[in-house]
């Protein structure tokens, strides 16, 4: 009897140990005020967008170092901690970039002064690196230093994670609620070839599967989250469509067409699309987006905003994005945003770039699974 109990105890202990080490981690996401909302409340939005044109596609400029955009609508963020004892920061979980960085006590930019700042001297496990960091933005840049420390994401503790400590930050960051960025794209586009946080989760055996999934709830609803190491079937319905990556840099896939009422209105003959949690809207080439907005009944103002009559939403057509032979339909209730100042479509001009960016407007409709090992994206209808 003692031997049996001993075996049972050891088996239970091994299962507990395995479960603790190889697990899934839920990271709740908060939908806060965007930079656009903050600037509007301060009466600064008109001046700001004239000075700094909205250019979400600047993030995917491959001419130099990894770039990110001055996206005025970013609003989903989660809280991570760095160091020992831990220092907490709110970060955008961004599948369109690959570096982790937060403000530091060495930064005197306005954006740093109104955000939490990491102090290396207060962490017993921090180590300085020997490289500087520079990430270009549409309207400026973030510069700083590299260091390494323990990063806690939900219940997962990532040891020796290299991250950026900002010294200067672009001015638009002052109006964002999040302190920094946690990139979830591939190492090949990381500045200074830094190993991304999720790669280290896999390398250190901290997740049960080499994938993470993203659920974004609708406006005003709670429950948005990133699940590292697994999925949550309660957030989607029906089967998952698995789409191979066309490039393992960003989460990039083949898009066949964009249609309205069965008519191809954009991406004729096929194009490339990126599933990006770090872009709030759906972005495409300017000519394609203008045509798409025209088809749904929107008129574009001098700033590129596509305006619709709020009373027309119920009669506006669905837009279908066909990805690798799979049709994903987005209704007007999902692609039109309403505010006190009126209604806008969530289709943004990307300038001369031929890339499409399927951002939060799309991901709110379709639960997204990012498999780093097999290099597939899974999409299923969100519930």
Structure description:
This protein is α+β, with helices and mostly antiparallel strands and 383 residues long. The protein has two domains: 27-206, Beta Barrel (Cathepsin D, subunit A, domain 1); 234-382, Acid Proteases (Cathepsin D, subunit A, domain 1, Beta Barrel), CATH 2.40.70. 16% of the residues lie in helices and 40% in strands. The protein has helices spanning 2-21, 35-41, 45-51, 110-113, 197-203, 286-295, 332-335, 360-363, and strands at 25-28, 30-31, 67-68, 76-82, 87-94, 100-103, 127-137, 141-153, 156-168, 180-183, 211-215, 225-228, 236-244, 247-248, 251-260, 263-266, 271-275, 282-284, 299-300, 306-308, 319-323, 326-330, 336-339, 342-345, 347-349, 356-358, 366-371, 376-382. The strands form four sheets. Strands 14, 15, 16, 17, 18, 21, 22, 25 and 26 form a nine-stranded mixed β-sheet that branches. The protein starts with a helix and ends with a strand. Mean pLDDT is 85; it is low at 1-22 and 62-72. Belongs to the peptidase A1 family. Residues 76-380 form the Peptidase A1 domain. Shows particularly broad specificity; although bonds involving phenylalanine and leucine are preferred, many others are also cleaved to some extent. Residues 1-25 form the signal peptide.
Shape: globular
Radius of gyration: 21 Å
CATH homology superfamily of the largest domain = Acid Proteases
The helicity comes to 10-25%
Category by helix and strand content: alpha+beta
In what range is the share of β-strand residues?
Answer: 35-45%
Count of all domains = 2
CATH topology grouping of the largest domain:
Cathepsin D, subunit A, domain 1
Enzyme class: hydrolase
Disulfide bonds: 107-112, 267-271, 310-343
Signal peptide: 1-25
EC number: 3.4.23.1
């Amino acid at each position: 009897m003692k031997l049996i109990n001993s075996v049972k105890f050891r088996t239970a202990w091994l299962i507990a140990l395995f479960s603790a080490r190889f697990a899934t981690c839920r990271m709740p996401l908060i939908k806060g005020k965007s930079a656009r909302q903050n600037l509007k409340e301060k009466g600064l939005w008109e001046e700001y967008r004239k000075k700094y044109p909205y250019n979400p596609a600047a993030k995917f400029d491959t001419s130099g170092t990894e770039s990110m955009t001055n996206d005025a609508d970013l609003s989903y963020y989660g809280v991570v901690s760095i160091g020992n004892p831990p220092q907490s920061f709110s970060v955008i979980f961004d599948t369109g970039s690959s570096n982790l960085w937060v403000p530091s006590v060495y930064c005197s930019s306005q954006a740093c002064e109104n955000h939490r700042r990491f102090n290396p001297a207060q962490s017993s496990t921090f180590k300085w690196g020997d490289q500087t960091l520079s990430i270009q933005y549409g309207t400026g840049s973030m510069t700083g230093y590299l260091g390494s420390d323990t990063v806690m994401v939900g219940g997962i503790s990532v040891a020796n994670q290299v991250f950026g400590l900002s010294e200067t930050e672009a001015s638009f960051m002052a109006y964002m609620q999040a302190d920094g960025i946690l990139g979830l794209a591939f190492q090949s586009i990381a500045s200074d070839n830094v190993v991304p946080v999720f790669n280290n989760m896999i390398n250190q055996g901290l997740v049960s599967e080499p994938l993470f999934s993203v659920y974004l709830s609708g406006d005003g609803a709670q429950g948005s989250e990133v699940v590292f190491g697994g999925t949550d079937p309660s957030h989607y319905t029906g089967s998952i469509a698995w789409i191979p990556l066309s490039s393992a840099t960003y989460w990039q896939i083949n898009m066949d067409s964009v249609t309205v009422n069965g008519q191809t209105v954009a991406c004729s003959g096929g194009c490339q699309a990126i599933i990006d949690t770090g872009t709030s809207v759906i972005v495409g080439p300017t000519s394609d987006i203008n045509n798409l907005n025209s088809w749904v009944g929107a008129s574009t103002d001098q700033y590129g905003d596509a305006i619709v009559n709020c009373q027309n939403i119920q009669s506006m057509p669905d837009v279908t994005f066909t990805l690798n032979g799979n049709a994903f339909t987005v209704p007007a209730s999902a692609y039109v945003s309403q505010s006190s100042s009126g209604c806008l479509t969530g289709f943004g001009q990307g300038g001369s770039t031929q890339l499409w960016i399927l951002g939060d407007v799309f991901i709110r409709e379709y639960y997204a699974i990012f498999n780093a090992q097999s290099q597939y994206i899974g999409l299923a209808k969100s519930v």
